[in-house]
């Protein structure tokens, strides 16, 4: 009799676990694309920090990582607002365990965490920014995006998510940067803004579990008396991918086949690909940067304007640490005309017997129209 009861109890528990797991996997399936829609954008908003904590926060476990990472949503907030600076902070990852890293598993073990959605409390003229991590090293920030959930993507029709600023692990070596004098990114008062940060904690010799990990961005604002002379710069980010515009994690990555000395992606393209941009106005690229995964065999990212190389980003190891790489971001002065076509090519090497499915090649530029 007792055995029967135990079996019943056990069966019941298994069913519950299966249901919970199914729901959790369904809710967390989509990695980069936030669940934010117009319906849960916030109504008129004062700029006090803790107004809108938690209901728009998400933590997303990608692929095979269902380890013991936990989330504290109470920490998310627009933590500082002044005339000179606004700081947006993500929710905290209470515990970010060390995870194994095998090239070939892509983003396994990476965790994405968002801030709440905030409305710009007044017109923002953003002239510079600093990305920060709390309780982690800079390389633990795999990438971060500040985005507008109310605007369509510039690279994919029908997807609501427009990056305003972003940074990659390999560009965090210089986590603060300013646009050249006289330029700013403009965010009108009331625009919704959200910060999304992907963390990872790959196993290395000295890696340790991390606790209360957060990402934040400081937006440096132009002083009111400078605004009349400022030119608007727009951020445009392009990405190489095997699966353009699916609206999930796959849209941002490509696979490097096994046993390839030199794999180049981007040589075949059409104008609709998210790694190709046709300028509709003449103007100038004033600042730009690249992102490739040096730790997964990424070598370089080439930027072409009308099929001529204009920037050649080589990614370099910063130290002996296997995950610390550096890809340049810096001021540029590249004039373009309406109709000019800019596109990307990334080069990876993969001597191993496993394909690398999570490779990336991204380019972000600030463009000021004439
Ligand atoms: Cu990446």
Verbal overview:
The chain has one helix at 2-27, and strands spanning 59-61, 70-72, 77-81, 85-89, 92-96, 111-114, 118-119, 124-134, 141-152, 160-168, 176-178, 183-187, 192-199, 210-221, 231-232, 234-239, 254-256, 260-265, 276-278, 283-292, 298-305, 308-314, 316-317, 325-326, 329-336, 341-350, 356-359, 361-369. A hairpin with a 7-residue loop joins β9 (141-152) and β10. The chain is 7% helix and 45% strand. The strands form 6 sheets. Strands 2, 3, 4, 5, 8, 11, 12, 14 and 15 form a 9-stranded mixed sheet that branches. Strands 1, 6, 7, 9, 10 and 13 form a 6-stranded antiparallel sheet that branches. Strands 18, 19, 21, 22 and 26 form a 5-stranded antiparallel sheet that branches. It starts with a helix and ends with a strand. It has 1 helix and 28 strands. It folds into 2 domains: 20-228, no CATH class; 231-369, Jelly Rolls (Sandwich), CATH 2.60.120.230. With 370 residues, it is mostly beta strands. Bound molecules: copper (II) ion.
């Amino acid at each position: 009799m007792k055995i029967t009861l135990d079996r019943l109890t056990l069966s019941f528990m298994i069913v519950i676990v299966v249901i919970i797991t199914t729901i959790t996997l369904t809710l967390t399936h989509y990695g980069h694309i936030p669940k934010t829609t117009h319906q849960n954008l916030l109504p008129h908003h004062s700029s006090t920090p803790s107004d809108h904590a938690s209901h728009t926060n998400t933590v997303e476990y990608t692929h095979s990582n269902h380890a013991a990472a936990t989330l504290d949503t109470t920490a998310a907030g627009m933590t500082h607002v002044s005339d000179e600076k606004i700081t947006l902070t993500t929710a905290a990852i209470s515990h970010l365990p060390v995870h194994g890293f095998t090239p070939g598993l892509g983003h396994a073990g990476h965790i994405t965490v968002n801030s709440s959605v905030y409305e710009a409390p007044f017109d923002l003229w953003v002239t510079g920014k600093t990305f920060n991590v709390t309780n982690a090293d800079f390389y633990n920030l795999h990438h971060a995006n500040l985005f507008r959930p109310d605007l369509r993507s510039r690279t994919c029709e029908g997807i609501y998510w427009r990056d305003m600023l972003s940074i990659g692990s390999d560009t965090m070596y210089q986590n603060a940067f300013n646009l050249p004098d006289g330029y700013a990114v403009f965010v009108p008062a009331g625009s919704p803004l959200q910060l999304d940060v992907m963390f990872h904690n790959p196993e290395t010799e000295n890696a340790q579990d991390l606790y209360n990990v957060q990402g934040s961005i400081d937006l440096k604002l132009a002083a009111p008396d400078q605004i009349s002379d400022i030119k608007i710069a727009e951020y445009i980010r392009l990405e190489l991918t095997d699966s353009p515009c699916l609206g999930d994690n796959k849209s941002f990555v490509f696979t490097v086949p096994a046993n390839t000395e030199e794999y180049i992606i981007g040589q075949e393209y059409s104008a609709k690909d998210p790694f190709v941009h046709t300028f509709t106005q003449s103007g100038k690229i004033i600042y730009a940067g690249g992102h490739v995964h040096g730790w997964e065999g990424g070598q370089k990212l080439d930027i072409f304007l009308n099929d001529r190389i204009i920037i050649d980003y080589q990614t370099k190891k910063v130290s002996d640490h296997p995950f610390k790489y550096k890809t340049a971001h810096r001021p540029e002065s590249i004039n373009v005309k309406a109709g000019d076509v800019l596109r990307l090519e990334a080069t990876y090497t993969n001597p191993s017997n496993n394909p690398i499915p999570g490779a990336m090649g991204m380019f972000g530029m600030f463009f000021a129209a004439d």
